[in-house]
């Protein structure tokens, strides 16, 4: 007759074995960013088989599910309930429910709160399976006409002017193409601050991707600013800006910053401030950065003068020494 502790150990092993096999993976399912045809067959199958579909806005996702006659239950998961909902969803996955996470549009985890649930699931030993599809950033990038070999997705820029400018300033030296999400009522501020921080680079605004009014506005940042001064910005927008590189800037002049400033003051009668602003723009750098470089150039020039003076002095000493020897 087996002892009680032996039986309970066997039961414990059996329970572990069964529960291991009943834990379900978390599926991250991409949905369209506009055009309802942009959904994969695999995404439709996973959504159709799910016990629960977690989504940012249940009404919005219901429209997509109704279109494909998917009658599965939904549960809201958004930035205001992500912490509690992550815990709840992890428990339900551990209990064996098959859960798919979708965002309002596009790929979950890209500029939405999915990350917290993914991290919680991984921490609980749950397998996470991506079902890829549309991403606005990638669609905008590939048709922007700007280099795609290396890109930096920077999400949404901060809403406050100062924070937005310093964020752009941080990205100034990156050589990769820059991709941002932006709201239509903030696009002009973003473009103006980008011009100030990055210089007049090539850029594109991809509007209403995959929808009836899809539009690409391409040109230098100053052209895009002009475009949106003349037309009210509307719809969803993704902004793509060329990375730091010699060919993105208006000027191919090899003169130093202080030479440019002097020349602009002399030739065009600009104030020092205006000349600095113009030279900065031509070099593709912010006015602040130009001011810093100008100070550095002046300090270096002063150091060189000083060194030259010392050298001449030393040479005289040396010459004097040689004569004496
Ligand atoms: N998860 C989504 C993805 O995979 O692209 C992005 C979600 S983010 C909260 C929403 C932002 O993406 C919008 O404000 C806009 O900047 C961009 N976006 C979404 N759909 C777009 C579209 N059809 N055209 C242009 N930009 C779009």
Task: Output the keywords.
five-stranded mixed sheet; five-stranded parallel sheet; alpha/beta; 325 residues; disordered C terminus; Cobalt-precorrin-4 Transmethylase, domain 1; binds S-adenosylmethionine
Strands, helices and their partners?
Elements: H1 4-22, E1 26-29, H2 41-49, E2 52-55, H3 58-67, E3 74-76, H4 82-94, E4 99-101, H5 114-123, E5 128-131, H6 136-144, E6 151-156, H7 161-171, E7 177-182, H8 187-198, E8 202-207, E9 215-220, H9 221-230, E10 237-241, H10 257-268, H11 272-283, H12 287-324
Helix pairs in contact: 4-5, 7-8, 8-9, 10-11, 11-12
Bound molecules: S-adenosylmethionine.
S-adenosylmethionine binds at residues 33-34, 103, 105-107, 110-112, 135-137, 181-183, 206, 208-211, 236-238.
């Amino acid at each position: 007759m087996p002892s009680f502790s032996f039986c309970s150990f066997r039961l414990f092993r059996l329970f572990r074995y069964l529960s291991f096999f009943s834990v379900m993976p978390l599926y991250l399912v991409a949905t369209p960013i506009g055009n309802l045809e942009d959904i994969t067959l695999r995404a439709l199958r996973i959504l159709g088989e799910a016990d629960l579909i977690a989504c940012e806005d249940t009404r919005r996702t219901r429209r997509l599910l109704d279109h494909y006659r998917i009658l599965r239950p939904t549960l809201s998961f958004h930035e205001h309930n992500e912490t509690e909902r992550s815990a709840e969803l992890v428990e339900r996955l551990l209990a064996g429910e098959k859960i798919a996470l979708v965002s309002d549009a596009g790929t979950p985890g890209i500029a939405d709160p999915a990350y917290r649930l993914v991290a919680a699931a991984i921490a609980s030993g749950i397998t996470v399976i991506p079902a890829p599809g549309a991403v606005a950033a990638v669609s905008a990038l590939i048709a922007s006409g700007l280099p795609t070999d290396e890109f930096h997705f920077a999400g949404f820029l901060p809403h406050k002017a100062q924070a937005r400018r310093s964020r752009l300033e941080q990205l100034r030296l990156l050589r990769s193409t820059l991709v941002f999400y932006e709201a239509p009522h903030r696009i002009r501020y973003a473009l103006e601050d980008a011009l100030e921080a990055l210089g007049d680079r090539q850029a594109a605004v991809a509007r209403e991707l995959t929808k009836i009014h899809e539009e690409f506005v391409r040109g230098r940042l100053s052209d895009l600013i002009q475009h949106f001064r003349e037309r009210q910005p509307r719809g969803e927008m993704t902004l793509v800006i060329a990375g730091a590189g010699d060919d993105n800037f208006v000027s191919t002049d090899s003169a130093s910053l202080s030479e440019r400033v002097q020349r602009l003051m002399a030739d065009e009668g600009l104030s020092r401030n205006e000349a600095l602003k113009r030279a900065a723009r031509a070099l593709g750098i912010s006015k602040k950065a130009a001011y810093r470089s100008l100070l550095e150039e002046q300090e270096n020039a002063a150091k060189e003068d000083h060194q030259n003076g010392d050298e001449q002095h030393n040479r005289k000493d040396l010459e004097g020494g040689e004569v004496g020897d």
